[in-house]
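REQUEST FORM: STRUCTURE PREDICTION
Request ID: SP-0412
Submitted by: Lab K.M.
Chain count: 1
Length (residues): 290
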Amino acid sequence: MLTQGTRLVASRYALGDVLGRGGMADVHRATDTVLEREVAVKILRDHLFDDSGESSETGDADRDRFRDEAQIVAALDHPGLVTVLDAGVDDDGLSFLVMDLVEGTSLATFTRGRKIAPHRVAFVGAELAAVLSYVHERGIVHRDVKPSNILVGRDGVVRLADFGIARTMSDPAGHTSAGVTLGTAAYIAPEQVRGERATPAADIYSLGLVLLEALVGRRAYMGGPMEAALARLHEAPLIPTSLPSGWPALLSRMTAFAPCDRPSASEVEQVLRGLERAPARTRRRRRSDR
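STATUS: Completed
RESULT:
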């Protein structure tokens, strides 16, 4: 039931609380008043803010990226992706994207600086690698794999969200000027820091940093955005040798400086499936030794 002051998008979607904020858009819990169901509505903000707090109007490139996100995700069909239900520009000129509402939390909220059990990290990582394998096979690079873009649903399904700066490999530049870096400083690959073309290997690097953070309870590269981004050009992430067997070798390969030295998403998934089962094998061996 609509209340006074409820904001309607496209004369149909009643906006509720903000679920998350990105670089150029906000995601709201909303109600589809036609089908009477809960959905998530992503709205491109009218104004963007830089690091100094200065406001600027949303540009054409931002609107184009927003439109591209809708087209890219709508063409994909995988349980590890959020389904697009509707998209467009309403009568007020508001660009919107309607998606399935995922009840759960982001990996960023789930971890909050604490260590996660290795077998659980292996499960989440394998699910994400499977999604990336599917996406990469279709010529798409996500370019912004990070904890806040990873949703862990109450149904146990792990989903990769926010394709706002994703790019098809046939159009690697898209709406990005040459030499401009897009992505989140704490997780982007070295080649992204240099403003070079991002390939599927960039997503693998980012996923490696995400998994490492979940295992050790802190980011590999700390500090401000510029400091964090530049640090990876001079030093590899610190991967503790105390991690369970298999993890140091995998993470070292995933975060290799040269993109050609990183494994494919399908190879990462295969290794992680093995690491996910490792605790059970270890427990069986211990029981047999008694």
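NOTES: Residues 47-57, 173-181, 283-290 have pLDDT under 50 and may be disordered.
Reviewed by: T.R.
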